[in-house]
Amino acid sequence: MSIFATKRTAEPVRHAFQLSPVAAGCAVFLSVFAGSAYAQAQDNTTTTTSATSSVATQPNSAEQTAAAAEPTPAGATAQPNVATVQVTGIRRGIEAAISIKKNSSSIVEAISAEDIGKLPDQSVAESISRLPGVSAQRGRSSGKASDISVRGLSPSFNGTLLNGREMASTGNARSPEFDLFPAELMGSIVIYKTPEASVIGQGLASTIDLRTVQPLDFGKRTVAVSYKKTRLGVKHPDGLPEGDGKRATLSYIDQFANRTIGVAMGFTRYEETGGGQTTFNSWGTAEMAYNGANVKTPGGFGYDTVVDSHERDGAFASLQFRPNKNFKSTVDLFYSAGETGQKKTGFEGGVAYNGGGAYELPHVLSTATVSNGVATSGTISNWKGVVRNHYEGSKDDLKTIGWNNELKIADWTTAADLTWSKATKLASRYETTAGIAGRAQDTLRYTNFNGANVTEVKYTPGSNYADRSVARLTDVMGWSGGEASPQAGYLAQPYVEDTVKAVRLTAKRSLELGPITGTSFGFNHTSRDKSRTGDEGRLVIAGGPYAAAAVPGSDVAFAGSSGFQVVSWDPRGSLGSVYQLAQKVDADIYNKYWDVSERINTAYVMGDLNGEMFGLSYRGNVGLQAIHTNQRGGGYVIDKARCVGNTAQTCPAQRVDEGDSYWDVLPSANLSFDLGNEQVLRLGMAKVVSRANLDDLRAGQNFGISTTGVPILVGSGGNPQLKPFRAKALDLSYEKYFGNKGYISAAVFYKKLDSYILRIPRPFDFRPFVTPTTPLPLTGPYAGSTVGLFNQPVNGDGGNLKGYELAVNVPFSMITPYLDGFGAMVNHSDTRSNVNLPETGFANVAGDLTSIPLPGLSRKVSNLRIYYEKNGFQIAAAARKRSSFLGQVSDFQDNAQLTFIKGETIVDLQASYEIQSGWLKGVSLYAQAQNWNNAPFLEFTTDEENPSNRRDYGRTYHFGATYKF
């Protein structure tokens, strides 16, 4: 049987070798899971459930299935014919996925909702991370899957679409964070690993299309409601209190006026307060004078208890109007607004080291017990401790509107699509200090120190810092200079705003011209404007430099694993009531403020292919995109020599605005050969690009004389002339299908990176920005010269990226009817790159390194999911594993930083039961467990066996019910 649905009669297809599911499955299992049985369970994690553009129906013909599998033009919907799906639950998602993958012209992976508002995981990122060649980085604060890497490339190399349209984002990257998309509002997700000319907004690694449901794809009115309770931080290694949460969802789909009007709406709300996490920051060891000799003591310490909170409201609506077979109009609306926060309650202080402020006197060690030069215990006088109550959080919202109109005129199908998307994000970073005001001192007793065990030392402050009469809000240490510049805390409130507008015109028609069976043309104009502004500065308490205020409330909390309690409060809303803001600007703060605008015009032509080559039937497409980009970046130039304070008057800045324009011509071709017996060989070739992160396009910079080494002017900033990442891609995939029930696949890929964006210092003449008061080097080879080194993102030569992917997705009933209901999905990928970036371009990467690997690249990624579904019962166990990689986190100054993250395995479990008959038919009860194996989040510098930072999250349990009618 031919796997292709063709429009023309072809000669009999030559059948390739016959492949049984048992033999195929064994072959892939052996290649992926070589090793012991225990290693298999640990090293190989969950695979994919795939997608369809309608979560409730499947196309009822091969042609319609193939159409549904093609890249979705903006606002496009499925064919009007409706068929009733006979399978439910896990198998529904799997079979819809296989239908998409099987009938696509390109190489795709996909996920489908198992039912209305029910993706197989709690979040979009978690579901995506189970696909072949896809991996997720957990957020450092939440422990949940957040950033997605495809085929070893960083998240910024992915293009992310909503119903085929580009969206605004709230971060420095172009694509929005996946946290903005509640899983309940998604009908399906399709990842295109090979590009097609008709898809706008593609990425170099992949294009991820998030799809909401379309109401006219459904055969009848459908309503679903669900409610869920959550327990977080269960079985935490430190025994901290658990967190809780709740989640509610409503979905409504209906058709009116003889199915000419369709309406779909979805609403979801969730709230979570995480369980406590403990962190410890060691200041190392040092020496102090005691009885005429130097003895070894701890350097200092910092303890924190961290509690996360998350709230989000999400909604979507789709209105379709199809009065006849020649016209269709669709309006899509999407809204997401939420608040994410992290509250830290902690305590810090020096032992050998002074806290670094103007108010703390030199420490004195007394009553010490000394053994072999180590002061195993002792008392520190002239000491001050600091209670920390910090809050780091943000409020964001994303609004997207799309309007698509499709009109058939004779042999032509034309479409016009409009997009408007806006995202905003206001972050708040409160840092507050409490303790003994002014120059008054305290004492500290420590015990149980052996010279190396800095994490096990017991500390006992002389005062009770859980007493609000002792610990008061004040400038405890004088960290900002003391009396002349009091600082009882710090507040930073960066604000990001991004607006995307687009218009797209397309036309397509059938054509008989050799192997070309159809052609399509299109033009897209995208306008994007993004900016980052904000306020930050010292928090000041009125009444002079030693002024103090009572800590609001009566809460106390343990400071991490210190064993003692401190005062606790939430500083949000305290500006104006407790503190005044002394606004601060300096070179580093100016560098955070920027704006970027882009005007991108894309024209494309694509031909659909259907023919025979080498005695094999094939189909596919070939096309070309021509893209013209006009970009401009704005920012500030700061001469550090003239920046003598932290106000606008004492640190003057010069506004600059620069830009560039360029063309990219991107050919692409996808061919799928029918090998017979439901076997397909796919070939993809293309040139691909990914544009730089928007903050890299800013025009700002700062410069001054280097204070280390040879005197020379040095500076850093953005690059408005930056061109995209560019690459050539070659993909080959073999796929064997067993109807829509299962498949195995093996794929290889190769990407030649023609250019890569990296930060490196380069020679630069600062003459345009030098003033008569700017000091120049006085000695050395650069004496009197305005030429120096400027560290900025530039386009460098690339390298290559290559790898392979293996996947098995089969129900065990194909092996024997005794295993009916059981099934497994397994995949494994291995990716390698010869690209090593100079460590000098990433000053935030610690360690003795001369080069670093590609950010986001895990060499090995594995997934496993085993399930049972029968008679209303659904049980699944899943695991995902990735090897160590260079990831990205945010630092305390709201800047993106690179850090090495140790490889991990995450195990998830789920079980549910749907009542099959009676008045409760349609009710499902379910329970899920995430991070069942309590996997920690570990960061390291050079040796992954010696982590520099550890976060434990415990397990997360979900219990809920769904009712569909």
> Uncertain segments of ≥5 residues (pLDDT<50)?
5-73, 75-86
How many beta strands in the DSSP annotation? 50
- Secondary-structure-derived class: mainly beta
Q: What is the C-alpha radius of gyration, as a whole number of Å? A: 30 Å
Strand content: over 45%
Tally of individual helices = 6
Broad shape: globular
- Which sheet architecture does the biggest sheet show? 29 strands, mixed
Distance from N terminus to C terminus (CA atoms, Å) equals 39 Å
How helical, in percent, are the residues? under 10%
Overall average residue pLDDT: 85
What does this entry look like structurally?
The protein is mostly beta strands and 965 residues long. The protein has six helices and 50 strands. β9 (243-256) and β10 form a beta hairpin. α3 (62-69) packs across α4. The longest helix is centred in the first third of the chain and has 15 residues, at 89-103. The protein is globular.
Strand-helix topology:
Elements: H1 21-32, H2 37-43, H3 62-69, H4 89-103, E1 108-112, H5 124-128, E2 134-138, E3 145-150, E4 158-162, E5 165-166, E6 188-192, E7 206-211, E8 222-234, E9 243-256, E10 261-273, E11 277-282, E12 285-290, E13 293-298, E14 300-324, E15 327-350, E16 364-371, E17 374-383, E18 386-409, E19 412-435, E20 442-447, E21 458-461, E22 472-474, E23 489-513, E24 516-540, E25 548-549, E26 556-558, E27 565-567, E28 580-583, H6 587-590, E29 594-613, E30 616-639, E31 654-676, E32 679-690, E33 701-705, E34 713-717, E35 725-738, E36 742-765, E37 787-797, E38 800-811, E39 822-833, E40 837-838, E41 851-852, E42 860-870, E43 873-882, E44 885-890, E45 896-901, E46 904-914, E47 923-930, E48 937-940, E49 949-951, E50 955-964
Helix pairs in contact: 3-4
